[in-house]
Amino acid sequence: MGSLGSTLILLGTFIVYLNGNHSMLLIAIVNTSAPLIVYLICYPITFMGKYKALRPSLKFVSFGAAKELFSLGFKFFLLQIPGVILFFTSNILISRLFTPDLVTPYQIAHRYFALTMTLFTIICVPYWTASTDAYARKDFAWIRHANKTLNMIMLLLLAIIVVMTILSCFVYDIWIQGQAYVPFSITLISAIYQLIILLSMRYSYVLNGFGVLHLQLILTITASVVYIPLAVFAGKVTHNINYLLLVMCLVNLPGLIVNYIQYHKIIKGKATGIWIK
Question: Band of the pLDDT at 71, cuts 50, 70, 90?
Answer without folding.
Answer: low
